[in-house]
Amino acid sequence: MSNVLVQVENLSKKYTLGQQQQERYQSLRDVMAKQVRKLGQTFLRPKHSATPAKEDFWALRDVSFEIQQGDRVGIIGRNGAGKSTLLKILSRITEPTQGQIRIRGRVASLLEVGTGFHPELTGRENIFLNGAILGMGKAEIHRKFDEIVAFAEVEKFLDTPVKRYSSGMYVRLAFAVAAHLEPEILIVDEVLAVGDAQFQQKCLGKMQDVGQAGKTVLFVSHNMGSISTLCNQGIYLKQGQVVYTGSIHDTIKTYMMAFQRGESQAPGVLFKRELCSSKLDAFQILEVALHDQNLELKPVTQTWDFVRIRIHFYSPRPISHSSVELAISTYAGNKLIQYSTQPLSGIPLSFAEGEAYIDCVIPKLPLASGSYQISVGLAMPMIEWLCWEENIATLEVGEADVYRSKLPPHQDRTPVVVEHRWECPGQKPLTHESVYTFGY
Q1: CATH architecture for residues 269-398
Q2: Could you read off the pLDDT of 32-63 as tens digits, one per residue?
Q3: SS in 3 state form for 107-144?
Q4: What is the pLDDT of residues 97-117, one digit of tens each?
Q5: 10 Å Cβ neighbour count for 83?
Q6: Which of 32, 91, 232, 339 could pair with 109 as two cysteines, CB 3.0-4.6 Å apart?
Q7: Domain with CATH 3.40.50.300 in the chain
C-alpha cells in the first residue's frame, strides 16, 4: 500500500480582484445593513456609472507534489507566494479553480486566529465541536479533554464564549485542539506568531512529538530556525508556483540563494514592496536599503563596515509617540541585534500621513561573514504593533580579515564580532596595535 497521504496534481487557484470578500462571521444586523446598502446603491447610482475594474489573479498555478506518511514539510516563500492559499485548499476551506487533491486521513488545521471556532460558543463547547468535525466520538474527545485544557492554559475561561478571548487565548486553545485530537495530518500556518515565545516553543515541541509519532505535519513559517528544526522536507513557492521540493536543508539553501541573487531588485536594495495600486490604506514597510557614508547604495558589506540601513514606510494617518523597530537574526532564528527608536533609544517619533523614511546608522557592523535575516516594523511602544515584517530581507556580510592575521576564516566562529583586548601581567607593555584585537 502506498505511503502517500497527500497528492496534489496541477493545482491552480484564481481570484478576481475587485470582488467584495465575505466576512468570516455576520450577525443579523450585518445582513440587514448590507441589503439596505444594496438597495440604496440601486436607486442612487447613475445608470451609466463605471463599474469597478476586475482583474484575474492566480494565487497558485500548476502546483504538483506528493507528501509521504510521517513527513514534516516546511512550506517557505516570500509574502504573496501562495503558501496560505495552498494550506486553505488542503484544509478544504477554499475550493481550487483547477487540479486535483487526494488526501488520506483526518486533517486538523490551524490557519488563522479562530479557524473552526464558533464565536458564540464557549471554549468547552468548541472543543467538542472541533472533535466532532474531525470525526471523533464523544468518548474519544472526553479522553483528551483534560490534556487539551492543560496545554491551552485557559481553565478559568473554559465556559466563556470564545468571542471574548484575546488573540493569544484563541490561538492557544485552537492549537491545543488541532494537535491533541489525533489527526493523521496537522496543518499549521504562521498564526503561532501571535503567541508568546514560551508558547511558540511549546507548540513546536508538540508538533515534533506529532511528527515522531508517524503523523504528517505541514508547517508554514518565515522563521527558518523553526522550519529547519521541525521539518525534514520542504516546498519552496514563488509567485504561486513550486520552485523546489526536497530535503529541508536544500530547500532553505535554494530559498536563500534567491535572496542573494537580488532578483528584480537593484544591488543594495534588500526589500522592495510591489504595490498593486497607488492607494495605500495600512501601515506598511515599502523598502529596506543599504547605504554607505556617501548615501550611495551599498551592494556589498563586510565586518566593521559603516552601514546605513534606510527604512521606507507608509503611514495612512498622522500618529505620534511611535517607533521604528529593526531586528537582525541568524537563519537558525537566533536574534542577534534589536534596535528601536523608542523605548530602547529614547527617541519618540511622529509619523505624518504618507511616505517617509528613517535611517539606522551602524558605524561598525559587528557581524561576522554570512547571511542574516532582517525584520522591520512600526509600533506604538507598549501598546500595539502597527505593522511587523518578519524576515523580509537578507543581509549578506562578506569575508573580512578582522584579525589582520591573513589566515583563512574559521568555520566554528560565532556570528558576532566584539572589540576587546588582552592584558598579561608581568609582560612588557603591549603596543597600541596589539592591545585592541578583534575576536569572534
Answers
A1: Distorted Sandwich (2.70)
A2: 667 766 666 665 555 555 555 567 889 999 99
A3: EEEECCCCCCCCCCCEHHHHHHHHHHHCCCCHHHHHHH
A4: 999 999 998 888 877 655 668
A5: 25
A6: 91
A7: 4-16+57-260
